[in-house]
Design brief:
By secondary structure, the protein is mainly alpha-helical. The chain has eleven helices and no strands. It has one domain: ABC transporter involved in vitamin B12 uptake, BtuC. Helix content is about 80%, strand content about 0%. The relative contact order is 0.15.
Length: about 290
């Protein structure tokens, strides 16, 4: 692999690391809250907003126009408000059902909107799998600054967000205005998703959010170790996916998605070995402690 290829892949790889950093963290909250498809739904709502904007005269049909981003973000905020307001402790309809309905309707609406566009097939492909190889260093820089700000926001209010995520089935027990904090969570989530979809597409964004968190849950109980496992997995899979797409001449986004799936299967398959070794080590410690007391 010569230096020209490495320089070409540098920006996409750094972008994938940035996606890993923020999405693995947000994924911990999503899994704790049990709203697994919220990212997929918000990503699709963001994609719908971008599609609608492309049909408007002010965008000029340019998917990279600033107006496309802001319309997409506005649609995402609407979705965030819906998800925050519809969550109640004893709702007859689960929140996940509402999220799924929003995803289905947004997907269908995007298809209808794209049927009126001149390049609907290419836009649909970009929405689903993105084109992370086309990312520029300027986009990488803007995304890093935005995600850094979102990360700082979550760090400042980490106690509130963690309290509500870990008490998702009984949010009133936290003593917080959970609808307000839910909206702030989903709104910040919307900033991330809107930018991520433009870079990587709906499917890859979903994988970066959910797969590292699910994999981390197989091996760790606490949030700190889960984040470490999720960030490590995301980094390795990103590098492996980009390399495989280059070697096999495959679409990069779809290759990374499939690589995530394969690595998750491997991690699940070898988990019993680690659990058995951990149990044996714990038993050895207990026997040693018992002999010491004797």
């Amino acid at each position: 692999m010569d230096m020209t290829v490495l320089q070409f892949l540098a920006a996409p790889f750094v972008a994938s690391l940035i996606l890993t950093g923020i999405h693995a963290y947000l994924g911990v909250h999503v899994v704790e809250r049990g709203v697994i498809f919220v990212d997929l739904s918000l990503a699709q709502i963001a994609a719908l907003g971008a599609t609608v904007s492309l049909l408007m005269p002010f965008s000029g049909g340019d998917p990279h126009a600033p107006s496309v981003y802001w319309v997409s973000l506005a649609f995402t905020f609407i979705g965030a408000a819906i998800f925050a307001m519809l969550r109640v402790k004893s709702a007859r309809i689960p929140q996940e059902a509402i999220i799924g309905i929003c995803y289905a309707v947004a997907s269908a609406a995007a298809i209808l909107a794209m049927s009126k566009a001149t390049s609907e097939s290419e836009h649909l492909k970009d929405m689903l799998v993105g084109n992370i190889l086309a990312v520029s260093w300027h986009e990488v820089g803007k995304t890093a600054i935005l995600y850094g700000g979102i990360g700082l926001f979550h760090y400042i209010f980490r106690r509130q967000f963690l309290a509500i995520s870990q008490s998702h089935n009984d949010p009133e027990s936290t003593g917080l205005n959970y609808r307000f904090w839910d909206f702030l969570f989903y709104a910040s989530f919307g900033f991330v998703v809107t930018s991520s979809v433009a870079i990587a597409g709906v499917l890859l964004v979903f994988c970066y959010l959910i797969v590292p968190s699910v994999a981390a849950m197989l091996y760790a109980e606490n949030i700190g170790p889960r984040l470490a496992i999720g960030w490590t997995m995301g980094t390795i899979v990103s590098a492996l996916g980009v390399w495989l797409s280059l070697q096999l001449d495959l679409p990069t986004g779809a290759t990374i998605v499939c690589t995530f799936g394969l690595v998750l299967i491997v991690m699940a398959a070898v988990r019993p070995l680690f659990i058995r070794q951990g149990d044996e080590a714990a038993a050895t410690v207990r026997r040693s402690a018992a002999r010491g007391e004797g």
